[in-house]
């Protein structure tokens, strides 16, 4: 047990208490559980979106990536997430908010029909299970470091705490705990970056690391991994448009304008925190040289290098950021399973608002268990984030944007696009040479786009009547 144990334990206990209190806000309603009755103001939307973007992958994972690759490679995680928020705010937030959706797959149901909704639901469930795993992994590592217990027991405790308050309050638990968790993270990472620069000097920090850690080779040279780094960032920028947890907050905003402004605020704050994490990663390259596991760089910085109170804030910052993202992702998967899979495909299941609430809470249990299993088998936060959004980037992003902006978009095109994109991504995983890593991310969405365009051009007239009905639903939000 380290000196960080009690602050971390108290932080988790307070988070659990706040989350359990939000049970009183749900009031037996599935709509309140999922989107807070579409009532969230700007600062709440912006804060909760920031809490989803800033997580264990973009903090603990980014420092790990910086340690084994370069500072730029670690920073690109936060840059990709911020650019994605700007993209969602500019092109998707307002039109999707007006539709009064409960989940993102529901958009695909209204625009492309029931089979498309099911395919998208299953793909996003897989994707976000991986995302939850990355954050549970980060929380497990932090608890393991501060308590001295093994990783697996720490992971189990973290999973139980998070799923408990998620079941209690749904999106309300995310909203209330996000304010407590994410602003502590902001203070912690900013304080750590300022202290490192003030005590060492930025030039000295740069001079202390190998040139390869700070030069631009990882951005411009394929031999140094530039193609893979850019592909990972592009996957985050566009793949995050399919982020169930981001969109849940967009749907919960009280207006389209509020949703858009919230995206812009969270993008700015994500860049601020990402820049501070990059400074910590830069310092860690020279200051932490004795760890065999790069995931231990940030914990070592917090315990042995930073002042105690800043180290505590960094620890609880990683913990809080990871908990908030895991909480939000468990929530949206449970609602997708309940509404878009079980309810939609089981006619005998009751469909009242209160029944949706009961079913969503029940679905949170297998969701958390599956994510915990992935976190146990492959505890790699930074890599897991990119893999998660690579999955949906390959097949789902083109039908999403086209469904909002292209009148000829139809069900045949959407299904062709999804199947071609995901199949191409699976094949590319096995046939892409290591020297060209990154093309396996970039080529499948291009093939998906071609399949979508060609199929829609060939079939849009035959689907004209159905398209008209779905377009009415799109505009009216019914």
Topology:
Blueprint: H1 5-21, H2 23-26, H3 30-35, H4 42-53, H5 60-68, H6 71-91, H7 93-97, H8 104-112, H9 114-147, H10 151-169, H11 171-200, H12 202-207, H13 217-220, H14 226-239, H15 244-252, H16 256-287, H17 297-305, H18 308-345, H19 353-377, H20 381-395, H21 397-405, H22 411-431, H23 439-459, H24 464-476
Helix pairs in contact: 1-10, 1-11, 1-18, 4-11, 4-15, 4-16, 4-18, 5-6, 5-16, 6-14, 6-16, 8-9, 8-24, 9-10, 9-18, 9-19, 9-20, 9-22, 10-11, 10-18, 10-19, 11-16, 11-18, 14-20, 15-16, 16-17, 17-18, 18-19, 20-22, 20-23, 22-23
List keywords for this structure.
478 residues; mainly alpha; Sodium/glucose cotransporter; globular
Bulk shape: globular
Tell me the series of helices and strands, N- to C-terminal.
Answer: HHHHHHHHHHHHHHHHHHHHHHHH
Number of strands: 0
Write down the overall mean pLDDT. 88
CATH class: Mainly Alpha
Description:
The chain is built from 24 helices and no strands. It is mainly α. The chain has one domain (5-390): Sodium/glucose cotransporter. α6 (71-91) runs parallel beside α14 (226-239). The longest helix has 38 residues, at 308-345. It starts with a helix and ends with a helix.
């Amino acid at each position: 047990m380290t000196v960080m144990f009690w602050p971390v334990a108290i932080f988790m206990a307070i988070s659990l208490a706040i989350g359990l209190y939000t049970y009183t806000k749900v009031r037996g309603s599935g709509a309140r559980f999922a989107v807070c009755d579409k009532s969230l103001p700007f600062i709440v939307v912006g804060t909760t979106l920031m809490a989803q973007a800033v997580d264990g992958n973009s903090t603990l994972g980014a420092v790990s990536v910086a340690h084994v690759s370069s500072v730029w490679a670690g920073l690109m995680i936060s840059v990709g997430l911020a650019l994605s928020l700007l993209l969602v705010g500019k092109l998707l937030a307002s039109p999707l908010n007006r539709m009064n959706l409960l989940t993102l797959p529901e958009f695909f149901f209204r625009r492309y029909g029931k089979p498309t909704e099911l395919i998208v639901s299953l793909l996003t469930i897989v994707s976000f299970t991986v995302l939850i795993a990355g954050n549970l992994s980060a929380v497990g590592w932090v608890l393991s470091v501060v308590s001295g217990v093994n990783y697996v027991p720490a992971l189990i405790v973290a999973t139980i705490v998070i799923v408990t308050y998620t079941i209690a309050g749904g999106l309300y638990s995310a909203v209330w705990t996000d304010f407590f968790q994410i602003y502590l993270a902001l203070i912690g990472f900013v304080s750590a970056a300022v202290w490192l620069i003030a005590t060492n000097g930025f030039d000295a920090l740069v001079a202390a690391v190998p040139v390869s850690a700070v030069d631009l080779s990882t951005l411009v040279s394929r031999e140094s991994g530039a193609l893979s780094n850019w592909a990972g960032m592009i996957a985050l920028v566009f793949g995050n448009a399919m982020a169930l947890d981001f969109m849940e907050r967009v749907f919960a905003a009280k207006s389209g304008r509020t949703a858009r402004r919230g995206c812009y605020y969270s993008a700015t704050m994500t860049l601020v925190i990402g820049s501070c994490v990059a400074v910590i990663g830069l310092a860690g390259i020279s200051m932490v040289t004795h760890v065999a596991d790069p995931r231990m760089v940030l914990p070592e910085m917090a315990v042995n290098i930073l002042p105690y109170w800043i180290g505590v804030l960094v620890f609880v910052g990683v913990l809080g950021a990871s908990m908030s993202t895991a909480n939000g992702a468990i929530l949206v998967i449970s609602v997708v399973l309940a509404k878009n899979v079980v309810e939609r495909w089981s006619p005998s299941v009751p469909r009242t608002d209160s029944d949706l609430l009961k079913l969503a809470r029940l679905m949170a249990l297998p969701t958390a268990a599956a994510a915990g299993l992935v976190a146990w088998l492959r505890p790699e936060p930074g890599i897991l984030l990119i893999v998660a959004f690579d999955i949906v980037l390959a097949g789902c992003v083109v039908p999403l944007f086209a469904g909002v902006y292209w009148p000829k978009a139809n069900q045949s095109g959407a299904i062709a696009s999804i199947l071609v994109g995901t199949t191409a991504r699976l094949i590319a995983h096995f046939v892409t040479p290591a020297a060209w890593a990154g093309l396996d991310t970039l080529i499948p969405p291009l093939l998906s786009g071609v399949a979508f365009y060609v199929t829609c051009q060939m079939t849009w007239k035959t689907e004209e009547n159905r398209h008209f009905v779905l377009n009415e639903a799109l505009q009216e939000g019914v």
